[in-house]
Amino acid sequence: MFKKIMRSYDYSLIAVYILLCLFGLVMIYSASMVMAVQKFGYESDHFYNKQMINIIIGFFAFICAAIFPYKAFKFNKVLKTLMLIIIGLLLAVHFIGSEVNNAQSWIDLGFMSIQPSEFAKLAIIIYLAAVYAKKQDYINTLNKGVAPPLIFLMFICGLVAIEPDFGTAGIIFIIGIIIICCSGISGKTFLKLGTMAAFLFLLISPVIFFLRDYIFTKERMGRLEAYVDPFLYAKDDGYHLVNSYLAIGGGGIQGLGLGQSIQKLGYLPESHTDFIMAVIAEELGVFGVAFVIVGLSYIVLRGIYIGVKCTDPFGTMLAIGISGMIGLQSFINLGGVSGLIPITGVPLPFVSYGGSSLLVLSLSMGLLVNVSMFVKYEGNHKHKKENDRPLSNSSKQKVYNFNS
């Protein structure tokens, strides 16, 4: 049985995950070596060493998630415990959290810092997938089926938004909508939800107007202005995007060579986190960019395929939710770096520097591989059962006639 389980794991998915993490480790060293010395006074390999530790911890979490049966998360005790931990962390960040980039969203544990909102992404995927899987018989009823988990989703988004971190809150909400769309609800029910959402927005619009100075801050509006015309604001809000353009354009097709980026020498802020793709484009050109995009696309598409093949509603929503999260974060990061959408400060999955992000993504990949293993194992087991079933008289006659 153990051998059959080991053969059922999706090793192509595991290989792509490891390759992206290792590629990211190399690029983090290249992108941060100068900045670590000039800006922070660290050793040139400071961020490289920290990311290596993050990868080791993340890989251990990946193995645990890949081995632990994903179906156990459907149990009420496990699910309730998980959500209580997440709510506790999201509340604790307002009392003991540290402020980074004008948002109180980090908790310092001494040996490392964690960002609870990152863990909330995966937690909300597990929660919605488990709850909607149990509600399949009455999924199209608003009061008992769709609405209660949606209210809880809004509560989690609200806790993240008041940090304030509207970008992450928006990502969590979109992930929730993705799961709702694949939960089995009908188009008619979804239309009702849309109507209710529009009505709710009208009700809270006076509150939004009253809090407009808090929500639409000068910094957030500056990002929108810089998105429209970054060169007009090249010295302030458009500085990141202009230097990102210069890095991408400077690399051309072949790139300047590994370690040869010019923009990372103090010109491009966040070169090892949010804008690492700009450094990849400058140093490795089209081929380096293609490697990352193809790898991320494979994970997303493979995850969707696993979700479609899975016969368990919980597994289906879990796989598609994780794929949607990785795809959404990749699009937001790449769109921000290239100027396709406004910059939101979302790291590139598996490649950017960051402990909390990598740990959550590793746990997510472990769950995705776990679902894939169950799909393949149960499919092979079912196929073997069918082959071992004794032939009926009519089937025996057909075999006899064929042999004749």
From TrEMBL:
Disordered: annotated span: 384-404
Compartment(s): Membrane
Transmembrane segments: 12-32, 52-71, 78-97, 109-133, 145-162, 168-186, 193-211, 275-301, 313-332, 352-375
Domain of life per record: Bacteria
One GO-annotated biological process of the protein: cell division
InterPro entries on file: Cell_cycle_FtsW-rel_CS (IPR018365), FtsW/RodA (IPR001182)
Enzyme Commission number: 2.4.99.28
Keyword Protease belongs to the record: no
Topology of the protein relative to the lipid bilayer: Multi-pass membrane protein
Chief location of this protein within or outside the cell: membrane
Enzyme class label: transferase
Pfam families: FTSW_RODA_SPOVE
Record field: compositional bias (Polar residues): 390-404
Record's catalysed reaction(s): [GlcNAc-(1->4)-Mur2Ac(oyl-L-Ala-gamma-D-Glu-L-Lys-D-Ala-D-Ala)](n)-di-trans,octa-cis-undecaprenyl diphosphate + beta-D-GlcNAc-(1->4)-Mur2Ac(oyl-L-Ala-gamma-D-Glu-L-Lys-D-Ala-D-Ala)-di-trans,octa-cis-undecaprenyl diphosphate = [GlcNAc-(1->4)-Mur2Ac(oyl-L-Ala-gamma-D-Glu-L-Lys-D-Ala-D-Ala)](n+1)-di-trans,octa-cis-undecaprenyl diphosphate + di-trans,octa-cis-undecaprenyl diphosphate + H(+)
Keyword annotations: Cell cycle, Cell division, Cell shape, Glycosyltransferase, Membrane, Peptidoglycan synthesis, Transferase, Transmembrane, Transmembrane helix
Role summary: Peptidoglycan polymerase that is essential for cell division.
Family: Belongs to the SEDS family. FtsW subfamily.
Protein name per Swiss-Prot or TrEMBL: Probable peptidoglycan glycosyltransferase FtsW
Species annotation: Rossellomorea pakistanensis
